[in-house]
Structure formats: structure tokens, C-alpha cells
Amino acid sequence: MTLLYTHPSGLLHVTPPSHPEQVARLDAVLAALEGADLRRREAPEAADRDILRAHPAEYLALLRRKVPAEGWSMLDSDTYLAPGSLEAARHAVGGVCAAVDAVLAGEAPNAFVAMRPPGHHAERMKAMGFCILSSVAIGAKRALEHHGLDRVAVLDFDVHHGNGTQDVLWDEKRALFASTHQVPLYPGTGAPAERGAHGQVVNVALAPGSGGDEARAAWAAICDRVAAWRPQLVLVSAGFDAHAADPLASLMWDEADFTAITRMICDTAAACSAPVVSALEGGYDLAALGRSARAHVDVLRETAA
Q1: Annotated catalytic residue 181
Q2: Sign of the four-CA dihedral 211, 156, 242, 298
Q3: How confident is the model over 221-277, as pLDDT tens digits?
Q4: Which of 90, 99, 92 is nearest to 39 (CA)?
Q5: Sign of the CA dihedral 98, 103, 109, 110?
Q6: Nearest CA among 157, 267, 170 for reference residue 214
Q7: I need a labelling partner for 88 at 20 to 30 A (CA). Which of 73, 97, 175, 230 fits?
Q8: Residue of 13, 55, 120, 121 marked catalytic
């Protein structure tokens, strides 16, 4: 059975009015998953030692100093800290790490972490793009350094390039990072020429207005690369902002595309005998986010049966 990790602290990361990365996003995802046959677990708070695998101690100290007693403090032009934000981010990281531990222990074949804030834009020393801690990259580091794995794949289908994940894993020869994303679009990284220190980074740029056919072809090619890599664990940055209804981008995916891409990833992982951990990233149209997350998790459930 698929594991679902979440925690009430995800609702404590309160952003300013009209900010797209809002509390209602987590509400929408959890409402969409209501009634799904999932084994629900509380996402624990991450230990400093896990966070420090991706972020220097001075960055974590900076975040602690920046947490306001009330209101907000700005980390960059669109990334804010509220009084509960760092707690939420630590539980988002802890959920990914706990999911990694569980699937590698054979407790379930896959897991979904429904938390916020997202993480894939957070670089080693820089919060940006609504992201504070690089959750999925930290999960990859835990798998490699705590569990001693040799090969981990990190796959990102958010519409925005996961520059933070790429930054953390750039020099990590044991981690294959692959991303599809709209170009041009924030954050302006993710060119195909960005290949990592060991040629282990795969970036596929998708043109504005492109749809499911282009997406599925890109992911079929990525999955061929993943299959050749033979990962022992697959982590997914599951952003749903490539949906045609999303206000922050202009790709034209729908729920059927998220279903198809998730199935490709899960089938590839199964062929490698690799468990899967997926974590929520973007998605800013609440109705489309809920439907797409449910479609994604339904495939995880089917492949876990």
C-alpha cells in the first residue's frame, strides 16, 4: 500500500494575501486524497544532520534568525518566512526522509509526501521560488549517505526547473537528476547544456504552449536513461503547474498526462526493483492541483497493489 506523509505544520507556512503558494494548496491536495486507500503517517521534523547534508550550517542559522515573531520576513522577492514557516519546511524535509527510510526498509513500495513549502528551488545557500529547504535533494542525500546506496534517480516534472535540486546534486556522481520544464520561464536555468559535474544531469526544455505529446515523448526518453542507470531508489519532485489551467506557466498538460508520466516513472522503477518516493512541489490552480495530485497518487496506489 502507498504511504502518505503529511503534517499539520504545512498549514503554518502562511504567505501574504494573494501569494500563489498558499495554505489552500495543501488543503486542496489533502481533500483530493480523502477516501483514497493510503497508509497515512505523520511527517516528522527533520534532524539538523539531514538538512546539513544539503545546506551549510550558516544557512540554517540564517533561516533561524530570519523567522519573525509575527507577520513575514522576506528571503527573496517571492519567498517569505512566517512564524511557522521553518517548522513547516523542516517537516517537509522530515517527511521525505521518513518516506525514504520506510520504502528502503520494505514497508511499502512507494510513498507520497503532501507537504509545503515546496523545495526544488532552494539552493545550498539561497532560498528562492517559494522554497526554503531542498527537500527532495536532502532525501537523496539521506539515501546515499545514511543508507549507503550507490545510485539514486531524482526526477522532476514541475513546470519550473529544479535549480535547487540541481545545485545540491551537481557534484554528486551517485545521483542522476532529470527534469522537464518550460523554457523560457523562471528561474532561467535548466538548459540542456547543464549536465552536472559527472554528466549525470539531464535537462529537457519544453516550449511554451506545448502539450502532452511532447511531455510524454520527453519522459519516455528520460525513463530510458533512468533504466540504464539502474537506480536503487527513485525520488520524484511532483509539481503540477504544467497543467493547462495553471496561472504561472503556459504548458498544456492535463490529468491524463500526469497519469501517463507517473506510470512511465513507476514502471521504470519497478523494472529496476527500485522503490519510489514522490513529494509535492508546485501547482497553483487549486482545482487542477487537486485533480492532478489525485491522478498521480492513484498511479502510485495501482503500482503498489
Answers
A1: no
A2: positive
A3: 999 999 999 999 999 999 999 999 999 999 999 999 999 999 999 999 999 999 999
A4: 99
A5: positive
A6: 157
A7: 175
A8: 121
